[in-house]
Amino acid sequence: MRCPYCRHADSRVVDSREADDGQLIRRRRSCPECGKRFTTVEEAVLAVVKRSGVTEPFSRAKIMSGVRKACQGRPVDEDSIALLAQKVEETVRAKGAAEVPSHEVGLAILPPLRELDQVAYLRFASVYKSFDSLDEFEKEISALREAATARETGVRHPVTPRSGGRAPRV
To answer: Which residue numbers delimit the ATP-cone domain (predicted)?
Structure first.
């Protein structure tokens, strides 16, 4: 790392710390040439690969926007949407890949949205999974009812995402 004071091409790392829940690394550096110290911040960039093949940076704001549309008219506050977007980002980053397909981002949205609001979940899932008929809505509603009954009785039956279909813009 080049020293910002004397432009010397090398520096020594004195201290490293994680910041922003592990998303950033702050490094304290020392220049062997002039002896001055400076701080650098490194951030792991997460990219989303769209269906068209275009790559763009991951955006928590886009997650919030899509979820906000699904929650329109529902009793869901902005803090809950922000927390959901944070959970989605953590889930996607936990995969450890620098590039993630947009489909995987959509899959990461479904479970926390189901817990947040079932009607919003159905709205989002109907677009994400490309529901073509009332039967598909009925199957998803039945799966939600089974999961609710299982929660009440203490048995877990996860709602499995349907493969294929078109993914909403994330």
So the answer is: 46-136
